[in-house]
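Interim report, section 4.2 (structural modelling).
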Amino acid sequence: MLVPAPHAIEAMIQVENLSKAFGPKVAVNDVSFSVQRGEILGFLGPNGAGKSTTMRMITGFIPPTAGVVKVGGHDVTEKPIEAKRLIGYLPESAPLYTDMTVEGFLAFCAEVRGLNGADKAKAIDRAIEMCFLKAVRHQSVDTLSKGYRHRTGFAQAVIHDPDILVMDEPTDGLDPNQKHEVRSLIRRMGQSKAIIFSTHILEEVEAVCTRAIVIDQGRIVANGSPDELKAKSELANSYLVSINGTEAATVREKLGSVIQSAKVTIVNDKPPTVVARVFPKDAGSDGALGQAIFSVAKQSDWTVNEIKKEEGRLDDVFRNITLSDTQTR
Amino acid sequence: MKSIWTITKRELAGYFNSPVAYVFLVIFLLMTAAFTFLIGQFIDRGQANLQAFFMWHPWIYLFLVPAVGMRLWSEERRLGTMELLLTMPITLWHCIIGKFLASWLFLTLALVMTFPIWITVNYLGNPENSVIVASYIGSFFLAGAYLSITSMTSAFTRNQVISFILSVVICLFLVLCGWPPVTDVVETLAPRSIVEFVAAFSVMPGIEQFNNGQIDSRAVIYFLSVIGFPLFATSVIIRGLRA
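Predicted structure of the assembly:
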């Protein structure tokens, strides 16, 4: 079907002008965004930027000072029960009842969410299988390792197969293999759900998200796909060239005269090798600069060791947009 | 209703998953027996009633009820599970009542397990069993009142010990402000009207009525409000935590 049904167009999560103040401290300041089904939204920001507070307002744990959160069309403040029913939530550091077994805990969560009898048993089995918890099914939660605890928290969030998943740092404290597992789990579920998760690991955003929001001091400072964000990097679309058989000054002069280049910087000058970075005049001129560099090298009879196009680095962008704010503070 | 029961079940299971519940039951039974027979002189009294048993309940509960209830909310706060619980599709009232009921049921179980004393007194003499039933009802309400206060103090802090101490202090006040040995002394210092006003908050007059076999509607209303108000305060505290 090419034309989506009207209800499918409506965003699963709609956040409008959301603010939260704790006394005089403004934690979240006029934040608006929306998440559709099939989207995986990465929530980025330095510690204390307001990520957790925003997620807590979306899940109805804390009431907003101003603004509206709509979940599946239900206002979280006015119809909390209906809204919460649609959400699966993994709070920061995955809190669990330590006096229960994994299965008992999941059974409790399923029951609170209104699942009973065969439905409940099926939901528990599905969540246990999905989150690789079979080995610890009957084990008490307080004897679990951190990875298992985290996955139990994850299982709790997906037990009712929710349309919306909100996860606060779902990979925090996991080892690389577990991180990989959780990421592929998120990616898989993202096809049919609307997912928001917060992180400060930038590679995670590139690996998993369809869209990323950077939040700093309670405000959204960037909103776009990971590629769009990367393109904001100063280094985006520049070329790194390593050349033998010439001198730095010549390289700077010749590459600088190429029509597509805006600037040439010498990164490294250790004879006989010169490493230079060539920045494009127009970020859109894809590939043309690379070809120009090659032809200059050929004419000048340089030996090109390596030429590499930079796609832009998310951490550069992240640092730029969140640091510039810090400096004006 | 179903979600209240789900919460209650989990809390009850929480008690019995640890040895603390059994230790508590044993201590409660030993203490009631010790007070009844050794200090209350149940046998030497030669009276076919359970006065010697019920007269100690306001004092025994003073420490045991806060011990049962102190974890209700402070544990949720300490573990961070409150965030989990309150983002489930249930209301805060479901949680507050569910938790309160679990502890109240547990205390009721402890109270029910004192039944051998009832059998004993019936074996030894011919007591007025209606008075004993009324006294049991009074004791049940008293446990609920202390527990409700403990629910409030445990919402107040993530530290169970602080919750326990606060609760003991408040309950002690509710006992002492209407306990004749104290009010008689205070009356020499303060105007009678003030003493009477403060004494109206005490659990003692109501408890005495129950122990005399009267089920007075005013006493019942008193206990229901002493249960209701702290539960309401619990909800205000928890809402305040998130604002």
